[in-house]
Specification:
Elements lengths: L9 H6 L10 H13 L4 E5 L23 E3 L3 E4 L6 E6 L4 E4 L24 E9 L8 E5 L3 E6 L5 E6 L8 E3 L9 E9 L2 E6 L2 E6 L13 E3 L10 E10 L5 H11 L6
Antiparallel strand pairs: 1-15, 2-5, 3-4, 4-15, 5-14, 6-11, 6-15, 7-8, 7-14, 8-9, 9-10, 11-12, 12-13
Length: 269
């Protein structure tokens, strides 16, 4: 009838679920999660934690094609989370981490945020993953650390608020701490982004920003890249991580939110 409004028929939607996959479904997210991971612009490395080598020196495989595989120190374990579809690596919080050495100035993880091969206006750094902390301890558990360059850790009053910090070339240490307080044994999407002059951190789809006045570039350090602790090492993380990525670009809000939305059903968020 002209001028009438089509009303969504919820019963019909439910009847057709066997024929048409709903958008919010773990299986739907599972089949497209790695595709979404590999589609991130400026992708330098991606560790889905589903691809695992038999040799400890290359156990966490970089699925981006860059071959920046990570060494498994002290036998962090790989598998899937509980009775879910989630591929993950699990750390004991005592001495386990994943590492790769720096290869010299301007090497693979030395993303300074002003790379000329990235389009103007899109230069910066973005890194993140899905993370599930078994517990929160007093020593600032680290998620990522490029020693003396950039890192993401749990900080805040209870060491349960994700924070993103870096060393800039003018001697500053700009930091942004999320307003989101995380709960142990729950999955969260955590993503840090540096755009010259600005620090951002996403926890799920909640954005917290802070000014980084004068911070134009990140220090090119000789320190190793680490997942699961600080690069010293220390500040060990207890819990699991999945779909870890490192990008030599400042990803847009739309891209970050799309990645979160396309994968979150798999993590029960």
């Amino acid at each position: 009838m002209a001028g009438s409004t089509q009303i969504r028929n919820s019963e019909q939607v439910n009847l057709l679920r066997a024929d048409f996959q709903p958008r919010y479904e773990p299986n739907f997210a599972w089949k497209s999660a790695v595709s979404a991971l590999l589609a991130l612009p400026g992708l330098r490395a991606a560790w889905s934690m589903s691809s695992v080598d038999y040799a400890a020196a290359t156990q966490a495989r970089d699925v981006s094609g860059g071959a920046y595989h990570l060494t498994n120190n002290n036998t962090a374990t790989f598998g899937y989370w509980a009775n879910s579809l989630i591929p993950c690596v699990t750390f004991d919080g005592v001495n386990q981490n994943l590492t790769r050495a720096d290869g010299g100035a301007g090497n693979w993880a030395d993303i300074i945020g002003t790379e000329a091969y990235i389009a103007a206006g899109q230069r910066g750094l973005t890194l993140g993953c899905w993370v599930n902390a078994a517990s929160f301890v007093a020593l600032l558990p680290f998620i990522f650390d490029k020693l003396n360059a950039y890192y993401i850790y749990f900080g805040g009053a209870g060491n349960n608020q994700p924070a993103f910090q870096l060393f800039d070339t003018i001697g500053g240490f700009p930091v942004v701490t999320s307003t989101t307080v995380c709960t142990a044994t729950a999955w969260y999407f955590v993503c840090g982004r540096f755009t010259p002059g600005t620090m951002d951190i996403y926890v799920n789809d909640s954005l917290t920003s802070a000014a980084a006045a004068g911070s134009v570039a990140i220090v090119d350090s000789a320190g190793q890249f680490t997942i699961g602790s600080s690069g010293a090492p220390g500040n060990y993380f207890s819990g699991s991580m999945s779909l870890c990525f490192l990008c030599a670009a400042s990803l847009s809000d739309s891209i970050i939110k799309a990645f979160y939305q396309q994968t979150r059903a798999m993590y029960g968020v």
